[in-house]
Design goal:
Elements: E1 8-12, H1 20-31, E2 38-42, H2 44-54, H3 58-70, H4 73-76, H5 81-89, H6 98-107, E3 120-125, E4 131-134, H7 139-146, E5 156-158, E6 161-165, H8 173-179, E7 184-188, H9 203-225, E8 231-234, H10 251-267
Parallel strand pairs: 1-2, 1-7, 2-3, 7-8
Antiparallel strand pairs: 3-4, 3-6, 5-6
Helix pairs in contact: 1-3, 1-10
Length: about 280
């Protein structure tokens, strides 16, 4: 499957609560007149990509910002006595996905992936670690599959195959965008908490931090190997960053920092030069 004639792709990576950063990036990219022909997303990036694909304009980004500013940790990771009792019934995962399901159902403006205004491809991972491309069918189930962090959320069965978080696929969303025909790829990474003074305290927080580190290394590898005929632009991540991807209280600040950082990057010619792996090294704004 390719998107013939679709040249520019936005790629949304995973990163838990750091997904708020992508909203600030989107605001500035659209204000600069940059529009994608299709979007690819994994994990929390699948949620942002799907919402944006439903109405890829500045008003949509403003609504997405409102959603992020209103999110609380308990909306996504509802821990309670009932959760603990539930863990005894289903020891293979920690968190009931009902909270996340509710957030998606309340906000996503379309029911099926093919109903998005621009082509949308969501990335999930099968049990062999292979990438699974989801571009048709129920959007809710696709997003839940792409965000199903192993041992934290239950896997999601689609077409008889159990699927989990798209961040774990051996093939990253950036490489998939190239395979789908993108000639220009703009990556919206969430980055990672490069300035944490101590490890997150909770098991879920530790897992999310480890995943963001893995995503950064995957991106670095892909930037080294992406074909030379494809223009790749990596919107800069935020560093120093001391916000855990399990902490949803700082979404507003992350959005505004991303706005300032992305503006500086565009003003400095970021969209005119091809990004390399060195741009993923820790840096300070």
């Amino acid at each position: 499957m390719t998107y013939a004639g679709k040249n520019t792709a936005f790629v949304f990576t995973g990163g838990g609560s750091l997904g708020a950063i992508q909203v600030g990036m989107l605001r500035v990219l659209l204000a600069a007149g940059v529009r994608p022909d299709f979007v690819v997303g994994a994990s929390v990036g699948a949620l942002n990509a799907a919402y944006f694909a439903g109405a890829p304009d500045i008003d949509c980004v403003a609504r997405l910002e409102g959603i992020w500013r209103g999110l609380k940790r308990s909306d996504i990771f509802p821990f309670s006595l009932a959760t603990a009792v539930g863990l005894l019934r289903h020891p293979d995962y920690l968190v009931d996905p009902g909270g996340l399901r509710g957030v998606i159902e309340a906000n996503l403006p379309f029911a099926r992936l093919e109903d998005a205004q621009i082509p949308l491809c969501i990335v999930a991972t099968n049990l062999q670690g292979q990438i699974v491309r989801l571009s048709r069918g129920p959007a809710l189930e696709a997003i839940l599959a792409s965000t199903a962090i192993p041992a934290i959320f239950p896997s999601v069965e689609i077409d008889g195959e159990p699927l989990m978080d798209g961040s774990f696929a051996a093939n990253t969303p950036m490489r998939l965008a190239a395979e789908l025909g993108a000639e220009r790829i703009i990556v919206l990474p969430t980055g990672y908490a490069c300035a944490l003074k101590e490890p997150p305290r909770s098991a879920v927080g530790k897992a999310l931090h480890a995943i963001t580190l893995m995503i950064a290394w995957q991106l670095r590898h892909e930037l080294e190997t992406v074909p030379a005929n494809i223009d790749v632009h990596l919107v800069p991540t935020l560093c120093p960053l001391a916000v855990s991807p399990f902490d949803f209280s700082g979404s507003g600040s992350l959005i505004e920092r991303a706005v300032q950082s992305t503006r500086r990057w565009i003003d400095g010619g970021g969209l005119a030069r091809r990004s390399g792996p060195e741009e993923l090294a820790p840096h300070h704004h």
